[in-house]
# Entry
Amino acid sequence: LRDRSLVTITSLISMGITDNSLKYHLTTAKQNCITRTEIAEIITHIAFYAGWPKAWAAFNIAKEVWNDDIKGDDAKAAFARTMIFPIGEPNTAYAKYFTGNSYLAPISTEQIPFFNVTFEPGCRNNWHIHKAEKGGGQMLVGVAGRGWYQEDGKSAVEILPGTVIHIPANVKHWHGATEDSWFAHLAFEIPGEKTENVWLEPVNNEEYNKLESR
# Structure
């Protein structure tokens, strides 16, 4: 039954059928023990073959189906209900490279490894570079809230749900939440040769505050 649910929802999304029939089969998939994290991974994987617009419509339906899994009435729980991806655990391993609190949830470690990164309001990471001799870089997909992405020497770009950011290798940049909004994005590491993440200085408060006045 679980495999049948997986085949059915994959077929419906690929065909662009995102009406009540998809909601019915997503509900059935949940009853057949497909978890919130698994459905997020499944739909994201479909997106690379069927297209992000179809997947995005499916995300919006899936989060409604799985929302009763999220308990609590604080700001963090309220934000979690706005997306299908889990917030995850405090990002303690990289906390020294962030201003404010962030959370990290591994969604897939196979085929296309990617994570959901969640930022509390005002949180952003330091300037950094994804170095590579060949290939490499990173792709971000906004999934909830509102955030910023900026490359060195360029104006900051707003990230909203559905925004896709392609970050070339060897480019200095940062990304994070706006001052008044929680924010989450998927982070895909692009394979390359001799890749290395180099963390640099924090984003200057004065420059960050200028963005918030826009």
Summary: Residues 89-212 form a domain with the Jelly Rolls fold (CATH 2.60.120.10). The mean pLDDT is 94. The longest strand covers residues 138-145. The helical segments are 2-14, 20-31, 36-50, 52-66, 75-80, 205-212.
